Amino acid sequence: MGDEKFAGLSFEEAVRKYKNTVGAVCVMRLKNQTDADDCFQNTFLRLYKKSPDLQSEEHLKAWLIRVAINECNRFMRKNRRELFLDKNNDDTVYFPHEECDLSWALFELSEKYREVLYLHYCQDYKVNEIAKILKKSPNTIKSLLMRGREKLRVIYGGDIK
User: For the segment 44-67, what is each residue's pLDDT rounded down to a tens digit?
Assistant: First the structure.
């Protein structure tokens, strides 16, 4: 590997720093560890091949999240099948962001709420930042957060702030 730098980080440093974030985005989107692993790998492969000019680590993180989402969308379009978490299967889905204890509840929500709530609560993104990443208006993100919180409150069994 060359001496490429991504927001001041080597490729290996970028993978090490953002592997949990990208992995969690892929798992949340696909609800299947094997498929998520493929999209995870493709996301970092794109980083290596494209070598985008990213000025800050925050920009790099947002770029990786956006690419991971696009990779998952591409995977779902290509496979055109229902992706689900088999609750009767002994295989457990690895959720790489252990510090976010909402993961089990987020899996119960539809994708549009799961994605916004994950970025807000687990990645600490603000409404405007989520809007940029997901290419939606801030008002749409606010609505999704509000509705998603209501749905999550029922599942989680408590107050979500």
Answer: 999 998 888 888 999 999 999 999
CA 110, CA 99: separation in Å to the nearest integer?
22
Residue 92's φ and ψ, nearest 5 degrees, are: -100, 145
Per-residue pLDDT tens digits for 9-28: 999 999 999 999 999 999 98
Sign of CA dihedral 69, 70, 71, 77: positive
Helix %, strand %, coil % for the chain, to 5?
65, 0, 35
Domains, the chain, in order of start with CATH, read 1-86 (1.10.1740), 97-161 (1.10.10.10)
For residue 121, the SS3 value is: helix
Instruction: Tell me the β-bridge partners of 6.
Output: 9
First to last CA, the chain: 44
